[in-house]
């Protein structure tokens, strides 16, 4: 089939994706092959494709496609996460648009609407991932609220409770007033903001002078129940034991002493608000202080505040500051660079809140997961994240796992009228447990806990549950688990990765994956994280429409070394599209050649060089994959295909205009091109599959063809071919610098014996437009001299030589090489470098030294002869 003049991604992408799906190439069932398994980081069911998804899903697709070509049983499990907070917010918004308030609905009615929303919008990102080319096993699509998955989550909760790991308690927690739910510590994002520090004077009973405190949250003054100072602070010795008056309320509170207070910080006096600060709560417990909660779950002041009831916390702050100033109680206000906690989900300022919640005791559970990473059972790539992981795991705190929402996995706790509870899967099971305690209830007498579990308390079971690890049929879990590679963002290293490792060891006794590839964060050219709110993120589907899925995949991977942030620019995907065009044009060129049955060996050297190059790049790419340097693997392929194959090899072997190519060379060219397409296929699946079929008749598809095998590299022909390329480039450069037309043929002399570049001379003569190539042991006068490798060359042209220009050229080259030699000598004279660096690295530096010295010798000789 004739290849069209231009490559049109739209014409091939849907076609090939549908073909692969019809052939069930993505589907996996256990067999006798080695499994290669990846589970997708389940995107939120609310999600639409963004640039982070493009990166985090292209990399596993590259890995899974390569594994498939290696004849491994490749299984990439897709799915979505129910995303409690985000989804509930979407449903509430939908209801509001319909004139319905959540507060007016029963839980069951709300859940009906929630499932309606999920059915309508929940699969959008799945279809978008298909547009990107993701070869997931869509028959294994999972959702974290599927019935079987739901059962797993509830059963694990009950098991952990029965083991004593889960408990319910009144604790100070992070509260999201927008979502009206608790947050875990990891869901609080701290931002540096410019705040105000307010200095407020409290009157002290029986003393003429008051006591001044500093606070960033003056609205919480209404909940103060003490002032605390350091017991050894001489400024406040006389104040301890007396009572102060809460400004604006005139409520008496004690002045206490505790070593917790830092005398050097602020005024050395601390207002204590046990209901609204974690540390204040601890102080309050220690000193048995009253706890006054002045806000409701939406951050609105309530009756206990004593004033401004019904006001939002921030509106109340402004009014209180004004009233303090009016009454002369505000001493001063200062600007303060402050770290403020925001909800990761809603971006609302987090409010510390005393609340009855469910917690998972983490320190003991975390130990095996810490050991797994430290001893190398689980490998983090890049390894720099090990220290970060270790720090978090060594300082892990109990996990608040309950959320005040309706959408999610409802906590299986059942309460009687007195508030006593049991943990059970069903009301009937709860009745049985109460009966065992001597309490006789009917199921309708009991009320289930209103809260749901934190989303991460379900997704931590992902690698187990998607393979039915808690079921009776162990076929899938025994075959696919532990999985091979997890690809995800560093920002959820603790949210998700660490917790999956914890769950893996707790419920299977094994790690959930061997390797964790941590990507960078996609940022714009100003290094800002891409987000919808900033408007700095391109729409991936629009990019795919404009540049093709292959171009987008290439563009994002070209700038994506593991663990480092990606500075995105549209020029990257444009470069990806240009590479697609380069491959397409190479295919058109090859297909357009006329083939002759006449035998010829004129291209034997070029073929052997290209085969050596191909074998070398296969080994290089495999090594990069083994080290999870996906970006380096792609860069190696990019250079090989663009430069070596397209720019050099095809020029070496292409027939003259109107001529034909011998069949042996043509078939070798197709063979090498096939290997290049196979190596590129995981990165650029659509165009490679299309060309694979267009370039020759095929009965099989590239997606399931064999990954190119490594072979010995002929180093001699490799070096000779590189020298031939350099000679051609230097001849062209010499013509350009001396204003000699490329069409003006000239002879070339090479210093050395008769065999110098003997196999490549015809290719050099053709591409450099030379009349002949001769070898010599003598200097050639009145010629343009240059060095290719360590071979001295002379281009003899019919014009007077600019001796001064040649002298400057040689001098510049010598100066450069001498500078280079100094840097190499500096390394080799460093005993620490020589002793600690790998022998191969040291030997490379020694070769550089020898090579530079020889080039300097040759150039200095040429300079003397010129003089």
Task: Outline the structure in words.
By secondary structure, the chain is α/β, with parallel strands linked by helices. About 45% of the residues lie in helices and about 20% in strands. It has 27 helices and 31 strands. Helix 9 (about 365-375) runs antiparallel to helix 10, helix 19 packs across helix 23 (about 715-735) and helix 23 (about 715-735) packs parallel to helix 24 (about 760-770). It is elongated, with a radius of gyration of 36 Å.
Strand content: 15-25%
Total strand count, please? Answer: 31
Assign the structural class, choosing from mainly alpha, mainly beta, alpha/beta, alpha+beta, or little secondary structure. Answer: alpha/beta
Percent range for helical residues? 40-55%
Largest sheet: 7 strands, mixed
Topology:
Blueprint: H1 9-22, E1 35-39, H2 51-69, E2 73-77, E3 79-80, H3 84-97, H4 107-121, H5 124-132, E4 142-143, H6 147-162, E5 166-176, E6 181-183, E7 188-204, E8 211-215, E9 226-229, E10 243-246, E11 251-257, E12 269-272, H7 278-287, H8 313-326, E13 330-343, E14 351-360, H9 363-374, E15 379-381, H10 385-394, E16 399-400, E17 402-403, E18 413-415, E19 421-423, H11 427-436, E20 447-448, E21 452-453, H12 456-459, H13 462-465, H14 475-480, E22 483-488, H15 493-507, E23 513-518, E24 522-523, H16 540-547, H17 549-558, E25 566-567, H18 570-591, E26 594-596, H19 604-626, H20 630-653, E27 660-662, H21 663-680, H22 685-694, H23 715-737, E28 746-751, H24 761-768, E29 770-776, E30 784-788, E31 791-795, H25 803-828, H26 831-836, H27 839-866
Parallel strand pairs: 1-2, 3-4, 9-11, 15-23, 22-23, 24-25, 26-27, 28-29
Antiparallel strand pairs: 5-6, 5-14, 7-8, 7-10, 7-13, 9-12, 10-11, 14-16, 17-21, 18-19, 18-20, 28-31, 30-31
Helix pairs in contact: 1-22, 2-17, 3-4, 9-10, 9-15, 16-17, 17-18, 18-20, 19-20, 19-21, 19-23, 20-21, 21-22, 23-24, 25-27
């Amino acid at each position: 089939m004739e290849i069209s003049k231009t490559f049109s991604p739209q014409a091939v992408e849907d076609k090939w994706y549908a073909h692969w799906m019809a052939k069930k190439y993505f589907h996996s069932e256990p067999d006798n092959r080695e499994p290669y398994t990846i589970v997708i980081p389940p995107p939120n069911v609310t999600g639409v494709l963004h640039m982070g998804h493009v990166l985090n899903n292209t990399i596993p697709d590259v890995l899974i496609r390569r594994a498939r070509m290696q004849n491994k049983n490749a299984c990439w499990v897709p799915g979505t996460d129910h995303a409690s907070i985000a989804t509930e917010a979407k449903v509430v918004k939908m209801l509001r648009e319909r004139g319905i308030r959540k507060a007016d609905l029963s839980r069951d009615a709300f859940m009906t609407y929630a499932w309606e929303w999920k059915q309508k919008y929940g699969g959008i990102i799945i279809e978008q991932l298909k547009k990107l080319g993701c070869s997931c096993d869509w028959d294994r699509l999972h959702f974290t609220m599927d019935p079987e998955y739901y059962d797993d989550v509830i059963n694990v909760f009950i098991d952990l409770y029965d083991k004593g790991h889960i408990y319910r308690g009144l604790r100070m927690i992070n509260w999201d007033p927008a979502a009206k739910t608790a947050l875990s510590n990891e869901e609080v994002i701290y931002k540096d903001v410019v705040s105000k520090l307010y200095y407020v004077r409290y009157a002290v009973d029986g003393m003429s002078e008051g006591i001044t405190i500093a606070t960033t949250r003056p609205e919480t003054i209404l909940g103060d129940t003490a002032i605390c100072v350091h017991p050894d602070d001489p400024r406040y010795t006389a104040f301890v034991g007396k009572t102060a008056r809460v400004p604006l309320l005139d409520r008496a509170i004690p002045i206490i002493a505790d070593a917790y207070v830092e005398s050097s910080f602020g005024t050395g006096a601390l207002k204590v608000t046990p209901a609204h600060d974690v540390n204040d709560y601890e102080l309050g417990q220690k000193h048995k202080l009253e706890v006054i909660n002045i806000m409701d779950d939406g951050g609105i002041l309530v009756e206990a505040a004593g004033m401004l009831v019904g006001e939002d916390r921030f509106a109340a702050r402004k009014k209180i500051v004004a009233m303090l100033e009016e009454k002369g109680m505000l001493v001063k206000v200062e600007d303060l660079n402050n770290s403020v906690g925001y909800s990761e989900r809603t971006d609302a300022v987090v409010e510390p809140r005393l609340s009855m919640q469910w917690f998972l005791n983490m320190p003991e559970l975390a130990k095996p997961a810490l050991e797994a990473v430290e001893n190398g059972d689980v490998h983090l790539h890049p390894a720099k994240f090990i220290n970060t992981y270790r720090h978090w795991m060594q300082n892990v705190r109990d996990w608040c796992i309950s959320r005040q929402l309706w959408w999610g996995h409802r906590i299986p706790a059942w309460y009687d009228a007195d508030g006593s509870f049991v943990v059970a899967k069903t009301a009937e099971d709860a009745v049985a447990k109460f009966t065992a305690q001597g309490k006789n209830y009917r199921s309708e007498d009991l009320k289930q806990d209103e809260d749901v579990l934190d989303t991460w308390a379900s997704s931590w079971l992902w690698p187990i549950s998607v393979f039915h690890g808690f079921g009776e049929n162990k076929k899938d879990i025994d075959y696919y688990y532990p999985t091979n590679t997890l690809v995800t963002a560093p920002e959820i290293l603790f949210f998700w990765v660490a917790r999956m490792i914890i769950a893996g060891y707790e419920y299977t006794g094994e790690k959930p994956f061997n390797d964790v590839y941590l990507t960078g964060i996609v940022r714009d050219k100003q290094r800002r994280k891409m987000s919808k709110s900033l408007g700095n993120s391109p729409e991936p589907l629009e990019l795919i429409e404009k540049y093709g899925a292959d171009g987008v995949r290439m563009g994002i991977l070209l700038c994506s070394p593991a663990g480092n942030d990606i500075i995105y620019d549209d020029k990257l995907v444009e470069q990806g599209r240009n590479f697609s065009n380069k491959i397409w044009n190479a295919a058109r060129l090859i297909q357009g050649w006329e083939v002759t049955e006449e035998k010829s060996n004129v291209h034997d050297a070029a073929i052997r060089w290209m085969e050596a190059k191909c074998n070398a790049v296969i080994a290089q790419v495999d090594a990069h994959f083994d080290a999870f340097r996906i970006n380096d693997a792609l860069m190696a392929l990019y250079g090989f295909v663009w430069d070596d194959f397209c720019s050099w090899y095809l020029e070496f072997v292409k027939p003259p205009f109107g001529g034909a190519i011998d069949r042996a060379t043509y078939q070798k060219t197709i063979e090498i091109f096939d290997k290049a397409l196979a190596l590129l296929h995981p990165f650029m699946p659509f165009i490679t599959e299309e060309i694979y079929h267009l370039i020759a008749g095929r009965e099989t598809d590239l997606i399931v063809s064999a990954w190119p095998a490594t072979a010995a590299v002929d180093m001699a022909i490799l070096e000779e071919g590189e020298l031939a390329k350099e000679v051609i480039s230097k001849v062209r450069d010499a013509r350009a610098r001396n204003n000699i037309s490329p069409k003006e043929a000239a002879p070339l002399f090479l210093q050395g014996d008769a065999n110098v570049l003997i196999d490549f001379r015809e290719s050099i003569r053709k591409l450099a437009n030379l009349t002949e190539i001769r070898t010599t042991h003598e200097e050639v006068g009145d010629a343009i001299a240059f060095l290719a490798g360590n071979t001295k060359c002379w281009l003899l042209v019919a014009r007077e030589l600019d001796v001064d220009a040649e002298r400057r050229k040689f001098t510049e080259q010598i100066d450069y090489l001498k500078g280079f030699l100094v840097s190499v000598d500096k390394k080799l004279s460093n005993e620490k470098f020589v002793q600690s660096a790998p022998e191969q690295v040291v030997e490379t530096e020694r070769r550089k030294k020898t090579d530079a010295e020889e080039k300097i010798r040759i150039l200095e000789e040429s300079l003397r002869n010129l003089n």
